[in-house]
Write a structure and sequence with these properties.
Helix content: 55-70%
Structural class: mainly alpha
Order of helices and strands: HHHHHHHHHH
Shape: flat
Number of helices: 10
Strand content: under 5%
Distance between the termini: 52 Å
Length: 297
């Protein structure tokens, strides 16, 4: 093997020493860490269950605008946490020199790729689980009849076809023929609109341009799905926050505990407001379990 310079050997030894796990057993305050578990549990559960209690107990007389402001302010905290705190930290952590060369040399943008994949996965889940909608209000058999020909019009009923007036014979460059073509095209478009309106009333269909209204049950399922997806993302995030807090020591632990307490409070208010805004049965236990799950993680 070729001999290496003393400087290269020193750099390798320095990198190996920096990647070793330090001994923190002397600075680790176990009673304070155990107490932090109950602090985070109480703060998180209280913040998440508070909006649910406000909705269940009208005597508190909390204005609805308060829940609206809290819900969207908490959502802003979530977005700010993702882009200001989590994403930069992910880039720093995943490009650490102690990791294999793939992370910090081959593809250092892996953190952004993972974030993009997460967003894409959430969108796919919402598309798959969202209530079904008709992509086209008319059946394919009618759409096949919609080609504009000499007599027919788009989506026209064969019994109610509107003929296009005949055209004059003459040169293509004549002014009269050009005006007649414009008139025939405008009449064709008007006939298409009239035929679509007649078909929508005759067959009980919704025109392509009108929005498709969801039923109350579909709206509830969609809102519930969005709320569950939000909580799953928050729970996944909370697990890693707990791991970061559990290994902190000294003054860093106290500062991180205070910061996470405020952070979990705002997240809990946002999640609890969205849970409370859903329509639940009078004796439903799902809202309370969702709030408890957030506090436990």
């Amino acid at each position: 093997m070729p001999s290496q310079s003393p400087r290269a050997v020193f750099r390798r030894q320095l990198a190996a020493a920096s990647c070793q796990i330090p001994d923190i057993s002397e600075d680790y305050n176990l009673p304070l860490h155990v107490g932090a578990l109950f602090i985070i549990l109480a703060v998180s559960f209280t913040a998440c269950v508070l909006p649910i209690i406000v909705v269940k107990v009208p005597k508190l007389r909390i204005p609805p605008t308060t829940l609206f402001v809290v819900r969207h302010f908490g959502t802003g905290v979530l977005i700010a946490t993702a882009f200001v705190h989590l994403l930069p930290t992910a880039f720093i952590s995943l490009t650490d020199p102690c990791l294999p060369t793939f992370w910090h040399e081959t593809y250092p943008a892996i953190a952004g790729a993972l974030a993009l994949a997460a967003v894409f996965g959430i969108i796919i889940i919402q598309m798959v689980l969202s209530p079904g909608k008709n992509c086209c209000a008319f059946p394919a058999s009618m759409m096949e009849k919609g080609s504009v020909s000499g007599r027919g019009v788009l989506c026209a009923d064969p019994e109610e076809e509107t003929p296009i007036p005949g055209t004059l014979h003459g040169r293509d460059s004549s002014t009269g023929r050009q005006l007649q073509q414009v008139t025939a095209q405008s009449e064709t478009l008007e006939a298409i609109e009239r035929s679509q309106t007649r078909l929508s009333h005759k067959h009980g269909m919704v025109p392509l341009t009108s929005p498709i209204a969801l039923s109350m049950e579909q709206k509830h399922k969609k809102e519930l799905m969005q709320c569950v997806l939000l909580e799953l993302g928050i729970l996944f995030h909370s697990v890693f926050i707990g791991m970061a807090l559990s290994v902190a020591t000294g003054n860093d632990f106290i500062i991180l505990l205070i910061a996470i307490s405020f952070h979990q409070s705002f997240e809990g208010l946002a999640l609890g407001s969205r849970i409370a805004s859903l329509t639940w049965k009078p004796n439903a236990y799902q809202p309370w379990l969702m709030a408890l799950a957030y506090g436990c993680t």
